[in-house]
Amino acid sequence: MIESTINLVGTELLLSLFGARDQHVRQIRDALHVEITHRNGTIRIQGAPDSVARATEVLEQLKSLAERHGTVSPQDVDSALGDSDHDNTSVHEPPIATAAVGRNVRPRTPGQHAYVSAMRNHMLTFAVGPAGTGKTYLAVALAVEALTTHLIRKIVLVRPAVEAGERLGFLPGDLQAKIHPYLRPLLDALNETMDYEQARQRMDLDIIEVVPLAYMRGRTLNDAFIILDEAQNTTVAQMKMFLTRMGTGSRIVVAGDPTQVDLPPHTTSGLSDALRRLHAIDGISIVQLTKADIVRHRLVQEIVEAYDQGER
């Protein structure tokens, strides 16, 4: 075990760097498995040599950001950790330029690098993997980049409104209010990669749509980036309907986790069926993400592993 130190000037800088309730420090600790403490204007980082070096690099980068802008966000911490991981991955993919000011997104694992590369180089990409691997977040970030650089004219975010143990009829409100909870994860990903007012304005202009899968029937989308989230909860007929919405100049990303199917018993998942039918077609990429690509809190990876062991 070794120790590294960073000197700080001023309480405000410390608060910005550490975050509310030390959330930024906890994020770095969990990602790099180091101990981080502060006393008398000095930050001490302890742990394995490689981890301490990476944590010191991340904190120095965030310190510089705090000195320039006065604040540090959780996304800035993610980006700094991504920069640190980037030098340790075997595949190098340029960062994704989002519409949020000063915020780029970097894939943080070899699997995520392969996923971003596949989306950039194929018209249709399937991303299969457990929760927390960045399937939806990276796809939305790349869609926002494509929109802001005028590679496409429209973003369409799609999700099946499958009732996972709940009944739509018992939810309050009209149809839009009932389906809103199913679309919330897509809106969350969008708001992390685009400033809120930008997103709202483009949604009002129909440049960005967030819609249930059923609303896609009969449409053809040209020059669009179309993302289907939770694809394991589509039927075979729904998946065929969705994939045939692709028009000229469009890209499609289909993301899902075949271990989390909420369809009625004995119903074939459209995702599993599509992977079997389409794997040999030129221009289609299938990326398999694993537990090693989980970039949420470290407990998520351990939870997934525990459930996998129980099923085995």
Please explain how this structure is put together.
With 312 residues, this protein is of the alpha/beta class. It has helices spanning 11-18, 23-32, 49-69, 74-86, 110-121, 135-148, 175-193, 196-204, 236-243, 270-278, 298-311, and strands spanning 2-7, 35-39, 42-47, 96-97, 104-105, 124-128, 154-159, 208-212, 224-228, 251-256, 284-288. It has a 6-stranded parallel β-sheet, with helices on both faces. Strand 9 (224-228), helix 9 and strand 10 (251-256) form a beta-alpha-beta unit. Helix 5 (110-121) crosses helix 6 (135-148), helix 6 crosses helix 7 and helix 9 (236-243) crosses helix 10. The longest helix has 21 residues, at 49-69. The chain is globular. The model is unreliable at 86-91 and 163-171 (pLDDT under 50).
In short:
This protein has helices at 11-18, 23-32, 49-69, 74-86, 110-121, 135-148, 175-193, 196-204, 236-243, 270-278, 298-311, and strands at residues 2-7, 35-39, 42-47, 96-97, 104-105, 124-128, 154-159, 208-212, 224-228, 251-256, 284-288. The protein has 312 residues and is an alpha/beta fold.
Q: What is the typical, i.e. mean, pLDDT?
A: 82
Distance between the termini: 37 Å
Order of helical and strand elements: EHHEEHHEEHEHEHHEEHEHEH
- Beta-strand content estimate: 15-25%
Computed Rg? 21 Å
In spatial order, strands of the major sheet run: 8-7-9-10-6-11
| Overall 3D shape | globular
Structural class: alpha/beta
Q: Report the biggest beta sheet as strand number plus sense, adding barrel if it closes.
A: 6 strands, parallel
Strands, count:
11
Low-confidence stretches: 86-91, 163-171
Individual helix count: 11
Helix content: 40-55%
